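Aim 2, interim progress: modelling of the nicotinamide-adenine-dinucleotide-bound target.
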Amino acid sequence: MASLRFLKGLKPAAAAAVHCGSAHAFSTAASTPKVYKPSFLRRNRGKILASLAVIGAAGLGYEVYAARHPQAQLPWDHTKKTIAILGSGWAATSILKDLDTSEYNVVVVSPRNYFLFTPLLPSCTVGTIELRSIMQPMRYITRHKKRQITFVESNCTHIDPDSKLITVEDNSEIVGLVSKQLIPYNYLIVACGAENATFGIKGVRENACFLKEVWDARKIRTRLMDCIETAAFPGQSPEEIERLLHMVVVGGGPTGVEYAAELYDFLHEDLKDWYPELAGKIKITLIEALPHVLPMFSKNLIDYTEKQFADQKVEILTNTLVKEVQQKEITVQNAKKEIESIPYGLLVWATGNTARPAVADLIKRLPESQKQRRGLEVDDFLRVKGATDIYCLGDASASKWAPTAQVASSQGRYLAKYFNNLAEKEKARKLLAATGGDPSTIPDEDPFEYDHRGTLAYIGSDKAIADLPGNIHVGGALTFYFWRSAYLSKLFSIRNRVLVAFDWTKKIVFGRDIGRE
Ligand code: FAD
Ligand code: NAD
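Predicted structure of the complex, ligand included:
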């Protein structure tokens, strides 16, 4: 304190010198006042910031310009081998990003002509984000590759590993004179994901909504608003209003939890203002067959989520198994092993994955090597066991890794590198053969290794949970911002990032849209 009082009586320059503890500086300052000279960085702070902003804007502008103006591409080359890729999801686009197409001809087959950023799909069911913001058209990707890529919007319905042919069928609304084709391949990459599992439970396909594709999110949004408007129809009985406003989610995995969380936000932040007489009657129930939700998360985050849901009045029925789904109610075996009927207005089914028909068909064709029903078994190099030149990755495969986007894209990067190296090795082999060298000196490919970066999930009320490497388990509002920034950075393109950021801002300013499409 004494030194502070002493400093108060001095001129600023001298005080600074004393504070720095320099007696010499003090004595000099007393005779010739020291002129304060700001550093170069301080003097030019404004100019530096302005220059950085101009460079950043120019970089961004160039990226946007380059994305909109694809260059001329190499044509199809009959001397090169052909890779057929099934799918336009996480696995397929991850391969396409890194594959050197100057070395191969590539055919992509998918019924969807866009990539879908699934982690933000639950947000689209209530209008926090618009669907187009998380879709990236495939041609925005394929047109930027060195060689022309053939994109065929169709389903692969059959794989013939003996004749190396795939059958593709156009099942879209508008079908031309030709709707079925056989496509030959040298290498086939199965990246067609998985279907929704229903375990053969009666009535699920007819009455429930799934949450995997764009049309699922659209259907949920429409049905939700339809239930609410129907409940508001004059003269509706109290029982019918209660049924219509009961939103049931089956499956306490991350899809079910994130959907229930988004629904709660919609109810709490928007519906209560626009439907004041009904909002208090809207009920959300999450049904899970196991004793807890989110089995893949650490125990403390499971507890945190269950408590958060209890606070939000989202009911969780654990140890409850859905047995049958009717049009207006579901039959469950509850925790006491009693059979019970639960009336519902909207039912969202999120109980995980099962193999797509083309994959199931290939599994049946390779009975000696394929023992799993949920997907194709692969070796350490993602080669399908029992087949030649067929590779499989992502949700279409049955491996020791969870069916996640993180695994699928990591496998995609691996396969792209694998095929780039394969082309290089092929050239080296030819060169060695011509020069009498030893081809055995060419190194083998490394097996696929997965580096897990952590698991995140949104749990409502601007809170998220994260299980991160290094035994870090965190949850709450800060984790929510981490969740948002992680997904914003992972979106496919700058266009997607701008659109999603705009949607989030729009929601804060105007709220969510409650119009029924
Ligand atoms: P997909 O991405 O499903 O792509 C499959 C592609 O194959 C699609 O383009 C499809 O149209 C196409 N296809 C379908 N049938 C055929 C056919 N017969 N022939 C040819 N093509 C076909 N994972 C995470 O890691 N983090 C998350 O936060 C996360 N959130 C999710 C949220 C939701 C709502 C959902 C549903 C999943 C989420 N996942 C998440 C899981 C992740 O989406 C999947 O693991 C990932 O999509 C798998 O990638 P994939 O390429 O194998 O399949
Ligand atoms: P899931 O397989 O992870 O969970 C499905 C849940 O449904 C299970 O807990 C299961 O016990 C329950 N269930 C099954 N049948 C039932 C029945 N008849 N009655 C009641 N409950 C039943 O499925 P998901 O949540 O769709 O996720 C699929 C994959 O996508 C997983 O690998 C998941 O990790 C991944 N994913 C990740 C995220 C994320 O990281 N945030 C988000 C969504 C999905």
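Confidence is low (pLDDT under 50) at residues 1-30. The chain has three domains: 2-31, 72-194+355-441, 204-353+454-510.
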